[in-house]
Write a structure and sequence with these properties.
single chain, Transferase(Phosphotransferase), domain 1, two-stranded antiparallel sheet, about 30% helix
Length: about 140
């Protein structure tokens, strides 16, 4: 499954104190492994300002996507949690989208551990095949 629009707004704490993911209206479910690539077209989906900072570049470019797109979003959410800032936020939506496509996010400057930076770099990798979570079975 690809959620396709993970953001802090889509994560909630349930009554049992467990985290839950909501807003599955854009999710895509897959069958066999060879069916794990899909395209979200612009006609299908427009992203709110709060979601845009967390959307994988391959979704913005309307390229084939896989579950690795959600790993990109997870990296952006972790960045936000560690820094208090959205990773690509600009004044204009077009500039935010461009910043995502160019991966203009200064992870190295974050005042966090080397291990946290390493995780963010691996999750927010522009080359999908090199992104953490893009391998067989999400490795």
């Amino acid at each position: 499954m690809v959620h396709g629009s993970l953001s802090p707004d889509s994560i909630v704490v349930a009554k049992d104190k467990h985290l839950r993911i909501r807003n599955y209206q854009d999710a895509r479910f897959f069958g066999k492994r060879e069916e794990h690539n899909i395209i979200f077209s612009a006609e299908e989906r427009t992203f709110t300002d709060s979601e845009l900072n967390f959307i994988a570049p391959e979704i913005l470019e309307e390229n084939l996507i896989s579950p690795a797109a959600d790993y990109w979003s997870l990296g952006c959410i972790i960045y936000f949690m560690l820094s208090g800032k959205k990773p690509f936020e600009e004044k204009k939506r077009e500039d935010t989208a461009y910043s995502i496509l160019m991966n203009n996010c200064d992870i190295i400057a974050l005042p966090v551990s080397i291990e946290a930076k390493d995780l963010l770099i691996k999750l927010m990798q522009l080359v999908v095949e090199m992104r953490l979570g893009s391998g067989p079975s999400g490795s």
